[in-house]
Amino acid sequence: MEAVPIQSENFKLGFIGAGKMAESIARGVVQSGVLPPQRISTAIHSNPSRGTAFQSLGISVYSHNTDVVDASDVIIFSVKPQVVKNVILQLRPLLSKKKLLVSIAAGVKLKDLEEWAGHDRFIRVMPNTPSAVGMGASVMSLGGAATEQDGELVGKLFGAVGKTWKADEKLFDAVTGLSGSGPAYIYLAIEALADGGVAAGLPRELALGLASQTVLGAAAMAVQSGKHPGQLKDDVTSPGGTTIAGIHELEKNGFRGTLMNAVVAAAKRSQELSKN
């Protein structure tokens, strides 16, 4: 049976799992005008405060996952990886091929998701935590029966909380090592830069503000200028100046190699975990 096209002007979206990431995506989708809140639903089983978070956006909150599936054309599974199998198997009788299924469960492969659901109109997405402030980096991989149109639709949903890319699923461990775990490396860098400012005599609050804004500004220039980061670095580095003295110190201590190793180590760990 061919996948039935989902009408982008009137489709309904459901979240199975009402955690922080689901809330971030729902908030972005509503605030950007991609979907009105009346066409979005989720289910709350235990924690009433999660329901309040969704209701405050105008989103329908049911008490059972089955109600969400019945009401939705596109279903995002945003539950923890260890429970996704049970949740999909419980809902399997309702998961017809008319419904486009999406998983954001880290480390859970498309072939398993498709097997549990009974069909392969599935898209796997790896978002990251800056989605909470609309600055996420999400990568998606399409299952066998997911159409290009399905991919565009999911790209639009996740585009509401940042930027999206499409990639082969075999690259997802590397994606996890870079954009999935990467925000933590940058928080460490911000903290260390602020500590450096304090060591050089700045008050803590000023040092932290300057460090955070400097990282934000540098990232924005890297994204918006179209220049290679090496060129942007050269633009700041004058002969015999302060910046080259700092860069020399970073190079002596293997700064670039350390960051490269962090990404590779996290990717390797992701690979190990997804085999379990």
From TrEMBL:
Catalyzed chemical reaction(s): L-proline + NAD(+) = (S)-1-pyrroline-5-carboxylate + NADH + 2 H(+); L-proline + NADP(+) = (S)-1-pyrroline-5-carboxylate + NADPH + 2 H(+)
Coiled-coil boundaries: none
Residues reported in the UniProt entry to bind NADP(+): I16, G17, A18, G19, K20, M21
Database matches in Gene3D superfamilies: NAD(P)-binding Rossmann-like Domain, ProC C-terminal domain-like
Pathway: Amino-acid biosynthesis; L-proline biosynthesis; L-proline from L-glutamate 5-semialdehyde: step 1/1
Cell location: Cytoplasm
GO cellular component entries: cytoplasm
HAMAP family, sorted: P5C_reductase
Name of this protein: Pyrroline-5-carboxylate reductase
Organism, scientific name: Gossypium hirsutum
Underlying gene: LOC107900495
